[in-house]
Design a protein that fits this description.
This protein has strands spanning 4-7, 10-13, 18-24, 32-39, 46-51, 58-59, 68-73, 78-83, 92-100, 108-109, 113-118. By secondary structure, it is an all-beta fold. Strands 2, 4, 5, 6, 9, 10 and 11 form a 7-stranded mixed sheet that branches. Strands 1-3-8-7 form a 4-stranded antiparallel sheet, with no helix packed on it. It is globular, with a radius of gyration of 13 Å.
Length: 119
């Protein structure tokens, strides 16, 4: 069973930066889309970044566009999320997720890492 393990969360002040990393327990990345989601208390889980398996094409919602950057290293089976100019509203638990390129469902999830942005 492949596991995804996130790291890099923590407490940062408004305007600061954090880098989250997700590592797979064994190589499986090359044919999987990778994504980062977040869930704040009382809110639904939302996608904040996605990177395609084949083209490395990326997607960001307007709320994080220009501030967050997703990248992947298939040889190392890792995906990262660089978060800059953080805002209080970015506070949430961040989850790494994966889906096979042939499906639409995100079938693999990490345990989540807390990001707290303080003012």
């Amino acid at each position: 069973q492949v596991r995804l393990v996130e790291s890099g969360g923590g407490l940062v002040q408004v305007g600061g930066s954090l880098r989250l990393t997700c590592a797979a327990s064994r190589g499986m990345f090359s044919t999987w889309d990778m994504g980062w989601f977040r869930q704040a208390p009382g809110k639904e889980r939302e996608l904040v970044a996605r990177i395609a398996w084949s083209t490395d094409g990326t997607y960001y919602p307007d709320s994080v566009k220009g501030r967050f950057t997703i990248s992947r290293d298939n040889s190392a089976s890792t995906v990262s999320l660089q978060m800059n100019n953080l805002k209080v509203e970015d506070t949430a638990v961040y989850y790494c997720a994966a889906r096979h390129f042939s499906t639409v469902d995100w079938s693999l999830w990490g345990q989540g890492t807390q990001v707290t942005v303080s003012s």
